[in-house]
Amino acid sequence: MNPSWARVQLARHPKRPHSLDYINKIVEGFQELHGDRHYADDAAIVGGFGFLAGRPVMIIGQQKGRDTKQKLIRNFGMPKPEGYRKALRLMRLADKFRRPILTLLDTPGAYPGIDAEERGQAEAIALNLREMARLQVPVIAIVIGEGGSGGALGLGVANRVYMMENSVYSVISPESCAAIIYRDASHAAKAAEALRLTPDDLLKLGLIDGIIPEPGGGAQDDPDGASVALAAAATHALDELSQMDGPALAAHRYDKFRQMGSFFSE
Length: 266
Prior knowledge:
Layout: H1 3-11, H2 19-26, E1 27-32, E2 45-52, E3 55-62, H3 68-73, H4 81-96, E4 101-107, H5 114-118, H6 121-134, E5 139-148, H7 149-153, E6 160-164, E7 168-170, H8 174-181, H9 188-195, H10 199-204, E8 210-212, H11 223-241, H12 246-258
Parallel strand pairs: 3-4, 4-5, 5-6, 5-7, 6-8
Antiparallel strand pairs: 1-2, 2-3
Helix pairs in contact: 1-9, 2-11, 4-6, 8-9
């Protein structure tokens, strides 16, 4: 098994901590907020106010289910438009009250069903990208499992982007890539290597700002240790970003993403 495919398998491990697992361990006084004020509440995205190391924050995460019932309720971690609109509502609320934002990315991708398309899936994600770029508070995004395409990026426009050591972040899943490129989804392991979706690859490409180490064997073997590492990285980032005012934070975020993929200089 090549290292990239092994990383994909770890990112999808059934016992890997999900967003609510981390929230329950690192956030005190978490008050979950619901609904997008337009259509419904999407259980694939959770969010609310709480305290991280004594600092008030807004934390928003993509939530997968653990058992069959929860997987169905959470739609396997695939948000619909109302999920992204809920997240945007919460981010605007955080911006209004000057609270930093922490997002946890863990989705195979945005839900591609016809009902989601009818309610404006692409528009909802695009609006999040634009509005996140304008926020006047610190924004930190951490990929804790699967960072799947625009479904993850809809919560990922941040001043600091980190990945857990055994997470992946890619424009497409290895299986879908293999089905398109090789006309055979069974070549997913080969596609995973070509996609360069591991934290090491993305750090070299300048697409993320750091890698959060996991306990030996992976976060699923020691959720407490993984939570401590995640909280430490987020707290350190908040300490650094708190030195910048609102316009500087928005400008920093804009410049950061404008430079991605540019490997040439005059």
